[in-house]
Amino acid sequence: MNNNYKRLLLFIKPYVPRLGMAVVCIIMAAAANLYVPWIIKDLIDKVLAQKDMMTLNLLGIGIIVVFFFRGIFYYGQTYLVSYVAERVIIDIREVLYKKFQEFQLAYYEKQQTGTIMSYITNDVAALQAALVNSLIDMVTELSIFIGSVCMMFYLDWKLALVTIIVVPLIGKAMKIFGRKLKDNGAIVQERTADITSLLQETISAVRVIKSFVREDYEIERFQKQNYLNFKANMKGVQLMSLLTPTVEFLAAVIVTLILWFGGYQVVHGSLTAGSLVAFLTYAVNLSNPVKRISRVFGSIQAAMAAADRVFSVLDTKEKIKDKENAIVLPEITGKVEFKHVGFSYNPGRAVITDLSLKAAPGQVIAIVGPSGAGKTTIVNLIPRFYDVTEGAVCIDDMDVRDVKISSLREQIGIVPQETMLFSDTIMHNIRYGRLDATDEEVITAAKAANAHNFILELRNGYETQIGERGVTLSGGQRQRIAIARAILKNPRILILDEATSALDTESEELVQEALDKLMVGRTSFVIAHRLSTILQADNIIVMENGKMVESGTHRELLGKNGLYSHLYNIQFNDKKSRQV
Ligand SMILES: Nc1ncnc2c1ncn2[C@@H]1O[C@H](COP(=O)(O)OP(=O)(O)OP(=O)(O)O)[C@@H](O)[C@H]1O
């Protein structure tokens, strides 16, 4: 906790000069407030009691000058504090985002998207509010508090002492509330994150919800979460609204004490009436800062709960990262070798066992097997989305763990089953494969991917916006854009997860043709569902329960009459007479 305060301060450190100026402005603006009771004192004791015109004139000029400068300092404090707070927030958000980009797949599989989003939105927003609003209030009120105390001692030290003895009571109350508010702040943030997660999940699963007619079920689920959020928020409101009256009551007790002791001294002539009124005004001044600081304290506690969450993300250790002496992988030929590879996502449950295989440059390796056999896992080991738990994966005889991850992934192209396109133009989506590609190169890639023609038919051609605010493309079209993207990247190794969902025959042919072109000259690992891929593969790996049970070409495997031949018969029975 303390540590996180320090870490927040580290984010503020680069802006200390501006913050220093801001604090000066805040103190100067606050000092103007301290001038007011002094005016009242002089007004009562000199102007009213002694009919002193000179003092009245001076007071008039003083008020105008002081409040003119107060305005200037007020502007300075608001501008400078907001500047620093906004910068700090931008920095934190950026560091968080970098961390998220650094995380490997394993992190995202364990976290819900909504939760991750809420770190960058809700938690950072809570920090932002605390920094902007609290900093000004805190320094202003603290200055007024300290200034008022000094003035009170100056006016009557005995009376001031009585007042000060009772003040810790307020501090105690604030502490109790502060702790409760912090705990509740954490719960509120969690509940909000739960709602965001639920929303995210249900929006992306809308097809599933509709097809199972689970709208009412989802509404009920949402209502429950929403109610929990309401309860947590109301708990916070309850605490906040109890805090103010408690502090105010304690302040009233203090004012009564001053009134009695002060009045006693005026009656006996040891204190002037003006001094007592000024003293009282300072005392009331004192209660304002206490009240506001207590509120600021509450929001800082809530912000610290957010900071705890933000820093816990920053502290998450990434297991898959470059070794200290990792080398840049030179341009590869595309030789891939699995050497007695074993892998498990969770200790004790092997998903891949003792897998050895070799792929010469340019070969096509088809991976087949029943669902859950470990096909996706195998291909994920090549770009180091996960690290092997036993053995090694080597590319051009170099262990993938010995080379820089970026230099490894730059030479591997992946065409996933579900094509992910960004809400951007088609041109940008293809160029994602190589950011410095020219328009001509993008178009050449699109032509090779059989995408050029359909792109030209769209109203804005390559500048057509895809996604939520743009056109919706068919599955086959999306795949061809993904293929164009991979062609542009021109990787030596290709990983292809063939879509299982059926495309119409024409689209299927166009996609297949594009894939065939893409595979030429590249070492390709294909999680194969299409017969044509399987037939052209140099080697077919048959997986079952994480083990390679057979391997060879189509004809060799059919001859073995094992799992492959069984899978082949059930999957392609109807097609084989046409295609073989
Ligand atoms: N992130 C993960 N964490 C834990 N276990 C996982 C994870 N991903 C996959 N598994 C498990 O590992 C095993 C192999 O999964 P994998 O996705 O590699 O199989 P697959 O052959 O590609 O299956 P499919 O054809 O259904 O995609 C399965 O038992 C699966 O439940």
UniProtKB/TrEMBL annotation:
Record-level GO cellular component terms: plasma membrane
SUPFAM superfamilies reported for this sequence: ABC transporter transmembrane region, P-loop containing nucleoside triphosphate hydrolases
Membrane topology recorded in Swiss-Prot or TrEMBL: Multi-pass membrane protein
Locations listed in the record: Cell membrane
Major localization listed first in the record, in broad terms: membrane
Gene3D superfamilies for this protein: ABC transporter type 1, transmembrane domain, P-loop containing nucleotide triphosphate hydrolases
Boundaries of every ABC transporter domain copy: 336-570
Membrane spanning residue stretches: 15-36, 56-76, 144-170, 239-261, 267-285
Keywords: ATP-binding, Cell membrane, Membrane, Nucleotide-binding, Transmembrane, Transmembrane helix, Transport
Keyword DNA-binding: no
Listed GO MF terms: ABC-type oligopeptide transporter activity; ATP binding; ATP hydrolysis activity
Highest taxon listed in the record's lineage: Bacteria
Pfam families the record matches: ABC_membrane (PF00664), ABC_tran (PF00005)
All residue ranges annotated as the ABC transmembrane type-1 domain in the record: 22-302
Protein name: Subfamily B ATP-binding cassette protein MsbA
Protein source organism: Pectinatus cerevisiiphilus
